[in-house]
Design goal:
seven-stranded mixed β-sheet; alpha/beta; 35% helix; 10 helices
Amino acid sequence: MNIGILNSGGDCPGLNAVIEGAVAAATARGWKVYGFFDGFEGLLSTPDNERWKILTPENCHNIRSMGGTILGTVNKGNFTVKSGVDGRAQIAQDVLDRSKATVERLGLSALIVVGGDGSQTIGLELRQIGLPIVGVPKTIDNDLGATDYTFGFWTAVSVVSMNLDRLRTTAYSHQRMMVVEVMGRHAGWIALYGGIAGGADVILIPEIEFTLEDIVRKVELLKALGQREIIVVVSEGARIGGRLLTLDEETKGEVRLGGIAAFLSTKLETITGIETRYCVLGHTQRGGSPIPFDRVLGVRCGAKAISLIEEGKFGHTVALNRIDMVSMPIEEAVRSLHLVGTDSQLVDAAKEMGISFGDAQERTL
């Protein structure tokens, strides 16, 4: 049996672990694996311009420890990616036809699509033209409802926590306030877990509406108690007065978020008089080697995808349910985003630790 595998969308720690797991499991069954370069664009190969290579256990040996992806990835190009909030445009028919022609020319019995909600939706469209698709969910944002955790998320959280530790020492030395912007788009998981682990005083997430007045009240209380440094963690998708801050209006259908840390830093310094700096962690959260949890989860996802192919469960995606690897239809997996519950025990625990969410509901110790 010949199968293909591709990564699509943003890069993520653990992608190579998925590739290694899939290649090992496929080879154990005597299958051949074609790895497509640069996401779905690799499907537009021609005999004169092949955009794939044969993957073997030898050329994938221990890539699970490497960040990024050996196959490359794109979130632009000929395939439309949806934002996860609004709808998406139809992929051009000639692109679909060329993709199907490549799959048929290589004699592929299945194609593993490793990507987020946009990539999985593209996979569904390929499925509708008869291609045998199996999905593997991928995003550091942890916002896919299909799975308890996505590989790459915990690595991103560890990057946030480590950087908060570093920023705290310099903030303490100069009695400054630090506003740290993290990724997550429309879900606050990275900010929430990273902020709790890194000892943030204020955590601002998209799911909880906040006001400048409530942040200032918390800051002034901490200063009155003698605290030298203030750490504010804000998710890029947190809204100011119900409005998202963006770097560009739109990029290939995706709203490009960013700038909220700079905005808050200026506002908070003006109001409080405390010297304030901001730091955007950006792609440091995506880069570097995955932590052990994400390496193991990635390998398991790759191996499970091969099992789904063997079972003929096309149109399904891999998912982590507690400690077990399961599957569900891709349509169900992309139906809704996995967001932070505002009344969850995790949020309550953070408030009991004295962390403010800028909503005037934190508990003062």
